[in-house]
Amino acid sequence: MTSNNMESGLPWFAYSGNDRDIVISSRARLARNLANFPFPFKFQRDDKERVQALIFDAFSKIEDNKKFYAISTESLSPLSAQILEERGVKKSSAKKRALRLVGESGIVMSADGKSSCTVNDIDHIHIAHFSSGLNLRYTYNECHKIDRALQKHLQFAANCDFGYLCSAIRNTGSGMKLSVRIHVPAITHSGKLKDLFDYLHTNEVSIMPAFPELSHTSAAGNFFQIESTSALIGNEIDQVANIEAVCKYIVESERKAIENFSDNKSTIIRNSVLRAYSISKFSLLVSLREAIDIISDIKLGVQLHIIQGIDIDSLCALLYSIQNGHLLYLLETGTFYFEKDIEKNQNIKLDRLRAVVLQEKFDKITLTE
């Protein structure tokens, strides 16, 4: 297969961040509801349209209004919606079905993609900010800036005793939810994943696979997402400090496990890295689950100094570039020539393109031993 056009540019997830060797990304989210309107699941008549109009209008009035653009989700193409799901802006279709949610009616995003606000999801507005690596204080501060700007034009429902009022009790209080995507292959391979789960449970932090739709028996690539479980415990600063402390513990634990594997020259780990290297170099078709596992093993190989020629930031960004929505976008905007026996099968074409993307990104990697 050949192509004459591949996407260029650096989105937020391609940049460096604190502790990026273990922490892939951070997100802060603030839930807010307008006073004098019912929660979305209790909307009647034109409540949905009125709430969305008020929120969109408020964004148009804030000082840095050129930074944001608003769109009704009804105007999104299926592909655009899929890409937003893959990048964490929208809830996945599977999650909405599981929670029996209709889904948001509108989205407001910053031009750089770092800030996003969903309108009329389970609350009237969810203000979110994404950042590479471990950067929770910054992500919270960016959400807070938007929150303060909106409060000049909107009145949010709040109570002196309970804080911000939300449709879910766990969000009432600060309205904040913090989530961090982590990569812990060494902890998993060393058999200490249960210990990590117990530690997180003790600290009231939840953990789940980062790619749940691909994680039937195990977390794809040993990528996990940890999240705060309640906005009622302490203020925003306390909540940020708690998740930061948890993340620092995870970072230290994973680095110790990696150091132990490096000192002991684990044959099993080296074999996983070498297999991933071989598959990525020579496979013609790579499924999404396989690609995530490959990226995981190559990243571990870089950390163990078995592989050189690619950096951690490039590998983290690759997690988004091999997603189906991104590849479908490449197919729509580029010119590709596929082998005749697969040119009419969309799923196989995606696996073929995914293999090419991996090969192009891994073109300069070499083994150090």
Structure description:
The protein is 43% helix and 17% strand. It is of the alpha+beta class. The strands form four sheets. Strands 3-4-5-6-2-9-11-10 form an eight-stranded antiparallel sheet. Strands 1-13 form a two-stranded antiparallel sheet. The protein has a two-stranded antiparallel sheet with strand order 7-8. β4 and β5 (115-119) form a beta hairpin. The relative contact order is 0.15. Residues 2-9 have low confidence and may be disordered.
- Report the end-to-end length measured between terminal Cα atoms: 31 Å
For the largest beta-sheet, the strand count, sense and barrel status come to:
8 strands, antiparallel
Strand order of the largest sheet: 3-4-5-6-2-9-11-10
- What share of the residues lie within helices? 40-55%
What is the total tally of β strands? 14
Characterize the overall form. globular
Q: Please, how many helices? A: 12
Q: Which structural class should the secondary elements be placed in? A: alpha+beta
Integer average pLDDT: 91
Strand content: 15-25%
